[in-house]
Amino acid sequence: MNSITLVCLLLCTGVSSFRFEELTQYVNSHEEEFIETLRQWIAVESDSSDVTKRPDLHRMMDMTAEKLRLVGGSVEMVDVGTQALPNGSSLALPKVVTARFGEDPSKRTVCVYGHVDVQPAKKEDGWATDPYELTDIDGNLYGRGASDNKAPVLAWIHTVEVYKALNIDLPVNVKFIIEGMEETGSNGLDDMIVAQKDSFFSDVDYIIISDCVWLSRRPALTYGTRGNCYFFAEVEGPKKDLHSGVYGGTVMEPMTDLISILGADLLRQLKTLHIIRLCFGCSTKLFPLDSSKVDLLAHRWRHPTVSIHGIEGAFSSPGTKTVIPAKVIAKFSIRQVPNMDPAVVEKQVTDYLHSVFAKRKSPNKLNITMVIGAKPWLADPKHPLYEAGKAAVKRVFAVEPDLIREGGTIPIARTFQDVTGKSIIMLPIGGFDDGLHSQNEKISRYNYMEGTKLFIAYLHEVSQIKKY
Amino acid sequence: MNSITLVCLLLCTGVSSFRFEELTQYVNSHEEEFIETLRQWIAVESDSSDVTKRPDLHRMMDMTAEKLRLVGGSVEMVDVGTQALPNGSSLALPKVVTARFGEDPSKRTVCVYGHVDVQPAKKEDGWATDPYELTDIDGNLYGRGASDNKAPVLAWIHTVEVYKALNIDLPVNVKFIIEGMEETGSNGLDDMIVAQKDSFFSDVDYIIISDCVWLSRRPALTYGTRGNCYFFAEVEGPKKDLHSGVYGGTVMEPMTDLISILGADLLRQLKTLHIIRLCFGCSTKLFPLDSSKVDLLAHRWRHPTVSIHGIEGAFSSPGTKTVIPAKVIAKFSIRQVPNMDPAVVEKQVTDYLHSVFAKRKSPNKLNITMVIGAKPWLADPKHPLYEAGKAAVKRVFAVEPDLIREGGTIPIARTFQDVTGKSIIMLPIGGFDDGLHSQNEKISRYNYMEGTKLFIAYLHEVSQIKKY
Fold this sequence. Notes:
2 copies of one chain form a homodimer.
Chain A: H1 3-12, H2 20-29, H3 31-42, H4 54-70, E1 74-78, E2 82-84, E3 90-92, E4 96-101, E5 109-115, E6 135-137, E7 140-142, H5 146-165, E8 173-179, H6 189-195, E9 206-209, E10 220-225, E11 228-236, E12 242-243, H7 244-247, H8 254-262, H9 264-268, H10 274-285, H11 293-301, E13 305-312, E14 323-324, E15 327-335, H12 342-359, E16 365-374, E17 377-378, H13 384-397, E18 402-406, H14 411-420, E19 423-426, E20 442-444, H15 445-463
Parallel strand pairs in A: 5-8, 5-9, 9-19, 10-18
Antiparallel strand pairs in A: 1-4, 2-3, 4-8, 6-7, 7-20, 10-17, 11-15, 11-16, 12-14, 13-15
Helix pairs in contact in A: 1-13, 2-15, 3-5, 5-15, 6-14, 13-15
């Protein structure tokens, strides 16, 4: 324990009149009610990547605003414009929900960021249960978005609710900023943050993000994330799919082009581009069984990587189909680390794939688009925000937290840092095995309820931070 | 015109009492009725590759049997056993429908082969119309299976029907053998042909297959097809899909493995395996714009090729998903040519992909399965069957037919040849632009009706063939 921690602990315990027992008791007695709200939220298929689900996403934002109003917040729904679609049309973005609880200038002001959109999920992807029907199995609450990020957002709202229900003053002013496009790159939010830098954010001291998970069974504080450059590589050839018997051997097949530039050529990049070498190198070399714990975590947090997620337009059903797909779109993403710039990654990847494709002398057309370009983020784990986090974890869980980084991306963290200049902490309550983005995503009752208590305690600890 | 053609033409015209005008007039006056039957057949989603559609496929076989009975055939539905599924269970194969019209020992006997199963099709694949609702646009009849192979099968049944309706004796005895598994490799049919070699096939002189298309607007006779070895390459890794941010860089991703062996390594095969070199070579080298007509047709008919159809298990929807798929299955097929043996291709492909995969030292599991292994077929285009075909084409269309081979595969042609020893002709009526296996498959009213007339004429011409 270092000296800062010691000072903080002295400040945070004993002296205060923090009525923590009463607050946690309230959480315990309202567990089923909190789960019921989560059930209602999970039932909304707020998949931001699927434009056909946009009405559900709008409804999810309305429900979020309504919930915040219900617990006494001053709520606004901020129009952040439209989204340009690949076909040239545009679509309204989900509004960003902001809320304010308290305006006492003598208190600290925190801003809680979260999102209520989710990744795609279908039962037939291999879910044991309907992904949009919250299902409790042995104390685990299964459903798409349970851990990422609906339960954490609700835990924060319940935090405020619990203070209010017990008529206990919030120890800090609390603001909320809840978006609906996180899973596809937080479209529109960057501009909104820039626009509201001197209004909504002017009195904010700290920004809290609870959109990640612990590393183990021990609670964690997160001080860094990787960025994400998500690419579409589209190869377009014949006007329509062709019979592979009739045309095989007489046309350059878009699928062969695509597999070739993704496969052969990504390996060849090992010898050419430094950054891309790093990306593609590690996924071919690393595997936990061969790695020490330090290596493993380094490759998860500090090294870039690439993942090929799938191919749109090709035959993807069970069974056989003898078709030459006319247009195929590979989806792959590169997680970058500090000092990598998405704009540079975009140029390098685009130039490289085009140069490789050109060598094939294919008559087909290649189009590379970076559809998400989210920067990495890094904080100082010695900042008082983290000391407050340690104290809160200690109070609720009676252990020291892990201090970790995150392999995933919370696109907006870096924008908050760059635009507002505020200090940021990531305070996760999700379990290490929650299966974010995967089949059978869940959050446990334990993490949902104890996580709410952690947030309750954290507001108190933050109120104890001395101004520098 | 060679001497055999001349002799045939002399035999076929003038001397005979062939009432061709009456027969074609009947076809003309029943066009709408014939199209209505096709509409009913197209409405059945008899996709043999999708086990969930098996009830539709059984229904399609029943409808075929019923139609043959209605026009006076002696019909049997032959049980050809069950199909083993990848999960270890088994499923009843669709029965094979046989029918017989006439048993006059003084006449020739032909056996018409066809199939009533279809390739997969979904509106969202890019069809302009519902693939299972026959739609007439400018004289083209759009629907899955319209050209491949429902309309040709119906044209043959209508041929018999027309003779009967006009009370004209069939010039030859006609047998039918109609199956429902052609699109997935004619499962069960090989064994049935072997079993019935000395019964159903004993009095058959010739086998006629009309399961292909013309090369141009000119009618064609087809004397060869390529074979088809269809592979599943499955790479299985984590127990479930993983978040690519959280796990990217720390696991060997099945998708990376798969793309790598399909892309990099298939190219490397250029230097190793002769047969595979041929396969993968031509698809990277050939393109119509760079090729003479002879080269183009050679690569379509006489050279092997490979097509990668798609990947099951990866993300294939529009939009973005940051997932590491846990299990991915590439589907690819190799069209082989005479003197290539599917068993050898299977061993070479399997061994090679495993050897390449082994070098990656991936902890994932690779499983290669050849799910279709259909042999190529080649006939003698100077055989009297083809001379009869020329005469029939000349009678109906007043042109000489193209003599062509087919890039696609009719799996059973080779089995008929090897097992029964009978001579075979492929007599297509489908148009060159019918889009078999593709979106917006169609047959034109013209090809459907004139094709029926071609079959009517062909039965007459075959009856004129002298015994050797």
